[in-house]
Automatic annotation (TrEMBL), chains A, B:
SMART domains (alphabetical): HTH_MERR (SM00422)
Alphabetical list of InterPro entries matching this protein: DNA-bd_dom_put_sf (IPR009061), MerR-type_HTH_dom (IPR000551), MerR_fam (IPR047057)
Name the UniProt record assigns to this protein: Transcriptional regulator
Organism for this UniProt entry: Halalkalibacter nanhaiisediminis
Keyword annotations of the record: DNA-binding, Repressor, Transcription, Transcription regulation
Length: 101, 101
DNA sequence: CGTGTAAGGAATTCTGACACG
DNA sequence: CGTGTAAGGAATTCTGACACG
């Protein structure tokens, strides 16, 4: 289920190197609810490789002139689409095999 | 080729949490040539998930009473075995398909 | 809105050494 | 040999704010 990709173990300086984004930008995207790092006891942020990929995606969208709230909404829509797909798939499976919870 | 597993992006504090080993031990195993972290410009160590796995393996062997130099030698032997296997495999492939470099 | 920067403090890491065994 | 620890300094990160636009 959870692989290395999801483990929040990377500090912001390294994320900055990996993505080419300034630490300021990375923290700002968190403020705008686009990314959710963990925190150490001391309070330092910890990111996963998945977060790094998300940040690269965000960077692309920002370059295209998109605003942070648009990116957030877009992701919510993606989530919804995904949910609908899964619901439909489950429904079809249930119909095909006549499964009840 | 290189995946997330090999990227040296984890600081020693987090490696310590992931492995349960003290930072002292982790640095010592480096001194004994059992592990090779990268360094940031400032000099802080950076480890990969593969390094974390290696450390867990080292920890097991230490618990079994093995000494650091024994672990190092054991790994060298593993490397040699692996090389031999690859050389043989390559030889068989070449023979089978009559390939020349 | 998105991002740079200087500011001061706190958390993290580093090295070399002493200790014990 | 393997590991803990106190010591002092350096690198890293954090927050809140001011600036520009």
């Amino acid at each position: 289920m959870s692989s290395y990709k999801d483990k929040k173990v990377i500090t912001i300086g390294i994320v900055s190197e990996l993505t080419g984004l300034s630490e300021r930008k990375i923290r700002y995207y968190e403020e705008r609810k686009l990314i959710y790092p963990d925190r150490s006891k001391g309070g330092t942020r910890k990111y996963s490789f998945l977060d790094v990929e998300r940040l690269l995606d965000i960077a692309n969208k920002m370059e295209d002139g998109m605003q942070t709230f648009e990116i957030r909404k877009m992701e919510q829509k993606q989530m919804k689409k995904q949910e609908v797909r899964e619901r439909m798939l489950r429904g079809q499976l249930n119909a095909a095999f006549n499964i009840r919870k």
